[in-house]
Specification:
With 371 residues, the protein is α+β, with helices and mostly antiparallel strands. 16% of the residues lie in helices and 26% in strands. The strands form four sheets. A six-stranded antiparallel sheet has the order 16-17-13-15-14-18. It has a five-stranded mixed sheet with strand order 1-7-2-4-3, covered by helices on one side. A hairpin with a 3-residue loop joins strand 16 (302-304) and strand 17 (308-315). It is elongated. InterPro entries: Nucleotide-bd_a/b_plait_sf, PTBPH1/PTBPH2_RRM1, RBD_domain_sf, RRM_dom. It holds the Pfam family RRM_1. This is RRM domain-containing protein.
């Protein structure tokens, strides 16, 4: 397209992985710039409030081709680039990287900047973050994004006191492994105060959420042909459930699991194992419908009254468990496994908990604690 075809663009500069943005609204934020550029690639750095009127900024991509894609898209699109409904103007910068980026404020505020160490982008969902941080108070909004320092999130609370309480409790701590059953390793939270006080969330998506406005629309890219929401993989249903056990004050045996899960249908196989210092089990049903019913009924319920041995359930990738021998680590109830029980100690070692469990109920009841 000719340079005069679209007044939003200037083509006097050669391509660069840094884009110069002009005509921005007052006090534009790093997160708004990241949101603007993230559709075209990984934004590794931003710099806001540049120029005499503080209405210019820079966006740096990981690769120059991503910057070219952004310029090319808006140059040929009928929809102009906008921030907060205001048209902004784009051009290549004469620099190849951004320096002297703004540092996060040290003053206590109601918005926390959370860096998640040890995980890839999107490995920790907004739902998990909401569950962790809402334990300290009402969470208004969450926005996640990628920067050079890693995968980060902004968490907005009602007030600075609530945010300070969450920061004091969670800074340097790991997200519980049962909330991230597919993660190999741990996710450590590094928390600072953000300079922002109000997050600008335009859409509900897998990257941003406004809990104060249930009528906020889904992002335009929220639903693809497979039904997955905004790039987030839809968890496929399966006939095998992956169970993680929290607050394990008593030993959870295969017999206990069998009694609990059999309340919803015939249990074909069970296998238990430890991962990331947590206790997990795989429970196989004959069909998906039975597994769905069990998951809906048991998710968040405790095997024992008092909130002990709380269940968190997800669908497994497996469809048929390979239980070669019946012992304390695996059981095949279909009769297809003719191997005798093996009473030798497991190579994984004995259960670390020696308490004697009280009687358990086979299904959730009003007496069961749901924390």
């Amino acid at each position: 397209m000719a340079s005069g075809g679209n007044p939003q663009f200037r083509y006097t500069q050669p391509p660069s992985k840094v884009i110069h943005v002009r005509n921005l609204p007052w006090e534009c934020t790093d997160e708004e710039l990241t949101e603007l550029g993230s559709l075209f690639g990984k934004v590794v750095n931003t710099k806001c409030n540049v120029g005499a009127n503080r209405n210019q900024a820079f966006i740096e991509f990981a690769d120059q081709n991503q910057a070219i894609a952004m310029i090319s898209y808006y140059a040929s699109s009928a929809e102009p680039a906008q921030v907060r409904g205001k048209n902004v103007y784009l051009q290549y910068s004469n620099r190849q990287e951004i320096v002297n980026s703004k540092n996060t404020g040290d003053a206590a505020g109601n918005v926390l900047l959370v860096t998640m160490e040890g995980v890839l982008p999107d490995a920790v969902s907004i739902d998990v973050l909401h569950l962790v941080f809402s334990a300290f108070g009402y969470v208004h909004k969450i926005a996640t994004f990628e920067k050079a320092s890693g995968y980060q999130a902004l968490i907005q609370f009602s007030d600075a006191e609530t945010a300070s309480s969450a920061k004091a409790a969670l800074d340097g701590r790991c997200i519980p492994s049962y909330l991230l059953p597919e993660l190999d390793g741990s996710c450590t939270l590094r928390i600072n105060y953000s300079a922002h006080s109000v997050l600008n969330v335009k859409f509900q998506s897998h990257r941003s959420r406004d809990y104060t406005n249930p009528y906020l629309p889904l992002a335009p890219s929220a639903i693809d042909g497979s039904g997955a929401q905004d790039g987030k993989k839809e968890e496929p249903e399966s006939n095998v459930l992956l169970a993680s056990v929290e607050n394990m004050q008593y030993i959870v045996t295969i017999d206990a699991l069998h009694e609990v899960f059999s309340a919803f249908g015939f249990v074909q196989k069970i296998a238990i194992f430890e991962k990331n210092s947590g206790f997990h089990a795989l429970i196989q049903y004959p069909d998906i419908q039975t597994a769905v019913k069990a998951r809906e009924a048991l998710e968040g319920h405790s095997i024992y009254e008092g909130g002990y041995c709380k269940l968190h359930l997800a669908f497994s990738r497996h469809t048929d468990l390979n239980v070669r021998i019946n012992n304390e680590r695996g059981r095949d109830y279909t009769g297809g496994n003719s191997a005798p029980a093996n009473h030798e100690p497991s190579i994984l070692g004995p259960q670390p908990i020696g308490s004697t469990a009280p009687p358990y109920s086979s299904a959730p009841s009003a007496a069961a604690d749901v924390v």
